[in-house]
Amino acid sequence: MAGSITSSSAIFTIAVTGVFNSPIQLQQFSADDIFTTSPLASAETSMGLDGVLAAGFVYVPISQNVSLQANSPSNDIFDQWYQQQQVDGEVYGAEGIIILKSIGKKWTMTNGFLTAYQPIPDAAKTLRARRFGITWNKMFPSNV
């Protein structure tokens, strides 16, 4: 029997130091997108004039987008995070955990910053999901 790959049991918690010090579970994700991450450059390469490829390790940030239904109470988390930064003229870092029960995996995210903020949902026949971008320093996978 094939294993489950459902996303409906995903758990995503986030804590923002100075705004929400205790982790809060995000709720009411968009049906089409819960979250996405961009592929990472795992090495920097350079081809020499002689045709020999060289590579080196580089640290890279991890970009993640979170999509929440327009009526999700979790939009308030991002609204308050953004507003606090506007009031203080300062950025606040976050820590997060994602658990994907269906595949038995957990990711711990560290040193994340709100790098994209959608202040209002797009309106069409219905209100569309709001998207928020977080750039993480590190993501550590483990088994649940």
Textual characterization of the structure:
- The chain is mainly β.
- The chain has one domain: Pnp Oxidase, Chain A.
- Helix content is 10%, strand content 44%.
- It has one helix and ten strands, in the order E-E-E-E-E-E-H-E-E-E-E.
- Strands 1, 2, 3, 6, 7, 8, 9 and 10 form an eight-stranded antiparallel sheet that branches. Strands 4-5 form a two-stranded antiparallel sheet.
- The chain is globular, with a radius of gyration of 18 Å.
Short précis:
The chain is mainly beta and 144 residues long.
Oligomer: single chain
Instruction: Report helical residue fraction.
Output: under 10%
Shape: globular
SS class:
mainly beta
Number of helices: 1
Beta-strand content estimate: 35-45%
Poorly predicted runs are none
Total domain modules:
1
Rg for CA atoms: 18 Å
The total beta strand count reads 10
The H/E string reads: EEEEEEHEEEE
CATH class: Mainly Beta
- Biggest beta-sheet profile: 8 strands, antiparallel
- Distance from N terminus to C terminus (CA atoms, Å) equals 21 Å
CATH architecture: Roll
Average pLDDT number = 95
CATH topology: Pnp Oxidase, Chain A
List the helices and strands and how they pair.
Blueprint: E1 11-16, E2 20-25, E3 35-37, E4 44-47, E5 53-56, E6 62-68, H1 75-88, E7 94-100, E8 105-117, E9 130-136, E10 138-143
Antiparallel strand pairs: 1-2, 1-7, 3-6, 4-5, 6-9, 7-8, 8-9, 8-10
